[in-house]
Design brief:
The complex is a heterodimer of chains A (63) and B (801).
Chain A lengths: L8 H14 L5 H12 L5 H18 L1
Chain B lengths: L3 E7 L8 E4 L6 E5 L7 H12 L3 H5 L18 E7 L6 E5 L5 E3 L4 H10 L5 E3 L11 H11 L3 H18 L2 H21 L6 H12 L11 H14 L3 H43 L1 H5 L3 H13 L18 H52 L4 H24 L12 H25 L4 H73 L5 E9 L3 E8 L2 E3 L8 H19 L5 E5 L7 H14 L4 E6 L2 H10 L5 E9 L3 E4 L3 H13 L5 H19 L16 H15 L1 H4 L3 H17 L7 H18 L9 E6 L4 E3 L6 E3 L3
Parallel strand pairs in B: 3-12, 3-13, 7-11, 11-12
Antiparallel strand pairs in B: 1-2, 1-4, 4-5, 5-6, 8-9, 9-10, 13-14, 15-16, 16-17
Helix pairs in contact in B: 5-15, 6-15, 7-15, 8-15, 9-12, 9-14, 9-15, 11-12, 12-13, 13-14, 15-16, 17-18, 19-20, 20-21, 20-23, 20-24, 21-23, 23-24
The chains are: A mainly alpha (63), B alpha+beta (801).
Chain lengths: 63, 801
């Protein structure tokens, strides 16, 4: 049975995240937070919001 | 690709006793016929539940796991679905107990992986689901496509980013930073007519402020700024007087600003309270907002024609005019939508008011400290204290009571608080001004103090503005990045979905045109429409149109549904080589039914198909058209006490009766069935003639009719056995079995059943061969002997010409 090759949803997201990570116009902290949660299979709105909150606190202190 | 060798249900949905469907070692396809309500869809439910852990048509009606167990199951019995595959390692059963706990018997990691992968595959299509997709909105179609091609993760990723972006944009800290920055900029603009954009401009303004004093150092950094400020202070002869004067000036300005804030707050309270009171006076209207979802669902069902004719979908009472109901529901939804919008506006106003009340309370605390610090205006101090307590309490009360639609009594004295406070502020300001005048200073000193105060104000506001700018920038960096990620992801999402749609569209078009060749519809494609919607586009009389509902008939829409399902099977099913089609041809005409069979033969010959139908003509067509070598054909029946079962032979029924009698269950119906089946076997063998009937009604002969015709034939053809007492006894048996089967509560004793079974055994013995287990048959008639024989010729019966 000939099957057409289909990329899975996770495969597409991984490739997309790799492209975004290489895009210098994207904030490192933001893309790192998204990518990190995705890799741990923990990406949801609440977790991402928490990560971004932490990232902002670090930026406020650093800046 | 896994295929099924056996499906066996027990206590699941319509199956009371073990209901096995043996598909053989070569995993043959099967067509199952059963009348409506014969329980054949139990097979589909079982496959759907086994793989997806839900049965969509039940779940939609909010009937969930509790609808899966057969109603007559004892609490200690399990409902069970057993699937045996050609890959034995995948075989196993899934059970649900009385506590609705589900379990798979196969605990192997290989099975777990297989089951997880199967979730993304298309295994079941029912008539009820055929048009589901077609009737969805464009964005629902997009989500559904994403779901069926296993892109739920893509939808979920997009929704997460979208939601977090909205949250970050609405963060209070971000709003506070924007407001703080505006406030600082406003002060700087008012005082210095410009807002320094950087340190250089900031130091330039400071330098200008102190230019006339010819200070020894130029202001170029923080250190020199501080040194210049110190030098200015040193030139003031009476610093304490200067400080007091500065403080009083600051108090005067603060009181002016506070007065403005009090008046702004007052305006918000005056605007909010009457609208809030009006809303809570009409509380029923507000509570009705919750009905919008309910009414919208009903409206949707009416519009899609998924409600019973002339029956209100809300209260289930008869309703003569569905169009009028739809009109009324639409009107009601519009009214409630308006009420909802009104409530949302009120909520926004409430949020602004609560925020302002809290801010003015904090401001009141600051002014109170200043006023008491200068020991002036005791009355103002008292009023300020009352006002800040009042505004803080009012903010808390409004925030707490808003969602419960409760009255806010504190606001009744609002006007009194304001009218008492404003004159006190006025008086306090006048007192401060009076004190300023008493602290007479020289023009030079006044200029020095002014410059000092200006430098302090410049530094405070520039520093604060920088702080807010930084916070704002951090937020905006995240917002910009999330926006870019979201925009880029939507592009990727649309591209991959369109790629999938293109692949699917080829097959959909192919299958649809196979079912409807040389008709007016052509070039069917699934396309992304607008930003994120998906729709079927097709050529109709040479013109590109959408959606399908616009021109396609019910039957054509069903064909499109089947074409979509089959295309999904080809594209997505990687682990399973079988699928179930349950009553999918109900709305097809004869030409298209045959085409569907041919489509399955030509394009899906590699798949194992479980095809269920309640139409006997269609079933006969399938039996004739599908290759007998690779297809099985079953008929099923259902009754309350036996559940779903394959129409059984005499031997099976005898075994079933034995099992049920051991369990103390009523076997009246089974005995009646046994009698009918036995008489049919005899009638068939002896060529007994019965009145003509069409199709499946021919099968529905009761024992009385069969007995009468068989007995009549035997009387004419075989006088030797016509005097056997069994014929008379069977008349009584027929009556008792009929009573026992139709009235489970009837008093038919164990002895009665024993007698009937014995009589049936005697009847069977007249015609059945113990050697070949076959009945005597006219096919084995000997002209010479005037006898009929069984196939091994050991059993015979005299038979006249």
């Amino acid at each position: 049975m000939a099957k057409k090759h289909i990329k899975s949803g996770p495969q597409i997201i991984e490739e997309f995240l790799a492209t975004m990570e290489a895009d210098t116009s994207i904030d490192r902290n933001t893309i790192t937070a998204i990518g990190g949660l995705w890799k741990q299979n923990k990406l949801n709105a609440n977790r991402l919001q928490q990560e971004l909150y932490q990232a902002r606190q670090v930026s406020f202190k650093d800046g | 690709m896994a295929k099924l060798r056996k499906v066996e249900l027990k206590g699941f949905r319509g199956s009371r006793f073990p209901f096995p469907i043996d598909l053989g070692k070569d995993c043959r396809s099967i067509a199952i016929f059963g009348d409506n309500a014969s329980g054949k869809s139990t097979v589909t439910d079982a496959v759907e539940w086994f793989f997806y852990d839900r049965v969509v048509h039940l779940w939609r009606e909010d009937c969930k796991e509790d609808a899966l167990r057969h109603i007559a199951l004892a609490p200690n019995e399990l409902a069970e679905v057993l699937l045996e595959f050609d890959h034995a390692t995948l075989s196993g059963s899934k059970t649900i107990d009385a506590g609705l706990n589900r379990a798979h018997s196969n605990k192997s990691p290989e099975f777990a992986t297989y089951l997880e992968q199967s979730l993304a595959e298309r295994l079941v299509l029912r008539n009820a689901y055929l048009q589901d997709f077609i009737l969805k909105t464009k964005s629902e179609k997009r989500d559904e496509i994403a779901r069926i091609i296993g892109y739920d993760s893509i939808m979920s990723f997009r929704e997460t980013i979208q939601r977090v972006l909205t949250w970050v944009r609405g963060e209070e800290a971000y709003a506070a930073a924007r407001e703080g920055l505006e406030r600082c900029r406003g002060r700087l603009l008012k005082k210095f007519s410009k807002v320094p954009r950087n340190n250089a401009e900031y130091f330039e303004i400071a330098t200008e402020l102190v230019a006339r004093f010819k200070l020894p150092k130029k202001i170029a950094d923080g250190k020199s700024y501080e040194e210049c400020l110190g030098a200015l202070k040193a030139r003031i002869t009476d610093p304490k007087k200067g400080e007091k004067l500065g403080g009083l000036n600051s108090l005067k300005t603060g009181l002016d600003e506070f007065k403005t804030s009090v008046m702004q707050t007052d305006k918000l309270v005056q605007e909010f309270m009457p609208s809030y009171k009006a809303v809570i006076r009409n509380i029923d209207k507000l509570r009705s907002i919750d009905l919008v979802a309910f009414l919208s669902k009903g409206k949707d069902l009416i519009e899609k024609g998924r409600v019973e004719k002339e029956k209100c979908p809300f209260c289930l009472k008869p309703i003569p005019d569905m169009a009028h109901l739809l009109e009324e529901v639409t009107k009601r939804i519009e009214q409630l939508d308006a009420a909802q919008k009104e409530h949302e506006t009120l909520r926004t106003n409430k949020d602004s008011l609560v925020k302002k009340l809290r801010a003015v309370s904090v401001e009141g605390t600051d002014r109170y400290k200043q006023v008491t610090g200068f020991g002036i205006a005791n009355e103002l101090g008292e009023r300020l204290e009352k006002y800040k307590a009042y505004t803080s309490s009012l903010a808390d009360t409004i925030a707490r009571r808003f969602d419960g639609f409760q009255d806010v009594e504190e606001a009744k004295n609002h006007e009194k608080h304001v009218t008492e406070l404003l004159p006190a502020i006025q008086a306090g300001g006048a007192q401060a001004e009076q004190l300023i005048k008493t602290l007479a200073v020289t023009a030079e000193e006044e200029a020095l103090m002014q410059a000092r105060d200006d430098l302090i104000l410049l530094r405070e506001n520039f520093t604060e503005a920088q702080h807010f700018t930084k916070i704002k920038a951090v937020f905006e960096t995240q917002i910009r990045s999330l926006s870019t990620i979201l925009d880029q992801f939507i592009k990727v999402q649309n591209t991959v979905i369109q790629d999938m749609l293109d692949v699917m569209s080829d097959d959909i078009s192919d299958y649809y045109l196979y079912l409807h060749p040389n008709e007016e519809v052509d070039k069917i494609r699934l396309h992304i429409i607008g930003e994120q919607g998906v729709e079927f586009i097709y050529s109709f009389h040479g013109k590109q149109v959408h959606p399908p509902l616009k021109y396609l008939s019910e039957s054509h829409l069903n064909s499109l549904g089947i074409a979509l399902f089959l295309a999904s099977v080809k594209l997505l099913n990687k682990g399973n080589g079988f699928f179930v089609l349950d009553d999918v041809v109900t709305s097809f005409d004869i030409n298209h039914r045959l085409r569907l069979l041919r489509l399955l033969q030509e394009k899906f010959s590699e798949y194992q198909i479980i095809l269920l139908t309640h139409e006997s003509f269609w079933f006969e067509m399938i039996k004739k058209d599908m290759p007998a070598a690779s297809w099985l054909f079953f008929e099923v029946d259902w009754s309350y006490d036996r559940g779903i079962e394959i129409k059984r032979a005499v031997k099976d029924l005898k075994e079933l009766i034995e099992v049920k009698r051991k369990q103390g269950l009523n076997v009246g119906n089974d005995v009646r069935k046994l009698m009918e089946v036995l008489l049919k076997e005899v009638a068939f063998g002896l060529g007994v003639k019965l009145p003509f009937r069409f199709n499946e009604t021919n099968e529905r002969r009761d024992a009385g009719e069969l007995l009468s015709e068989v007995r009549g034939t035997v009387n004419r053809k075989s006088p030797a056995i016509k005097e056997d007492p069994v014929w008379q006894r069977l008349q009584t048996c027929s009556l008792i079995a009929s009573v026992a089967s139709h009235d489970p509560g009837a008093e038919v004793g164990k002895g009665d059943i024993d007698t009937i079974l014995a009589d049936l055994g005697r009847l069977e013995a007249l015609f059945l061969c113990n050697g070949c287990k076959g009945y005597v048959s006219l096919k084995k008639y000997s002209q010479k002997d005037k006898k009929v024989y069984c196939s091994c010729a050991k059993k015979d019966l005299d038979w006249k010409d």
